[in-house]
């Protein structure tokens, strides 16, 4: 049996922008992607703390140490600059492997999205 478990989580980051006219995705500071073991193109779930919206998109790299968290394309309608969001990705693992798996959990400074 296989199950889905949390693989990566960036907990409580501030949205720095929303670009409706971009093709799609979420732009994430490359340092945050590295710390949380996310790769470009990976499917992510977004949870907006401010309005309760939940949706999926894919990650693209932003400039390293920029603090950038920008929702692009249609997802831009689900956030506002300044909203606090959680970014989560999942992995499918064998049941026994999942019991010992340890996810990459990142808790950045939500004022400027830096790693502390």
From TrEMBL:
Cofactor binding remark: Binds 1 pyruvoyl group covalently per subunit.
UniProt cross-references to SUPFAM superfamilies, sorted A to Z: ADC-like
Class of the enzyme per the UniProt entry, highest EC level: lyase
UniProt KW keywords: Autocatalytic cleavage, Cytoplasm, Decarboxylase, Lyase, Pantothenate biosynthesis, Pyruvate, Schiff base, Zymogen
Cofactor(s) needed: pyruvate
One CC-aspect GO term: cytosol
Catalytic residues of the enzyme: 25, 58
Location within or outside the cell: Cytoplasm
A Pfam family annotated for this UniProt entry: Asp_decarbox
PANTHER family named among the record's database cross-references: ASPARTATE 1-DECARBOXYLASE
Functional summary from the UniProt entry: Catalyzes the pyruvoyl-dependent decarboxylation of aspartate to produce beta-alanine.
Protein name, as recorded: Aspartate 1-decarboxylase
Organism the protein comes from: Flavobacterium aquatile LMG 4008 = ATCC 11947
Recorded name of the encoding gene: panD
